Structures are given as structure tokens and as C-alpha cells.
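ok here's Transmembrane protein:
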Amino acid sequence: MFLSSRFLSFPMVIGAVIIGVVSGKAIFGPPLDEYWRKKLQEEAAAKDSDANSS
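and the structure:
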């Protein structure tokens, strides 16, 4: 079932990293995009209100 070597092979590690990155973007991508969009809008509104008040 498993290879007899103690360490994972390099291609297996690279494959796992690619799968992890793709699945991470699929799971966490949309909520993070929404978070940063709201954050940038709040910062723009704060800068706008600071410019208007001075």
C-alpha cells in the first residue's frame, strides 16, 4: 500500500501542495474577496470623511 521509503517522494509532495492550494482557493477565495472588498470600501469612506472634515 505505502512505499517502503520513510520519506515522501518529491513529485508526491508537489502534487499535494498543488491540490492544497487549489482547494484552499476554492474554499476560502470568495469569502476573502468579499472581506477585502468591504475593507477597501471602509478605508475609502474613512479617507473621504477625513478629507471632508478638514
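+1. The chain has one helix and no strands.
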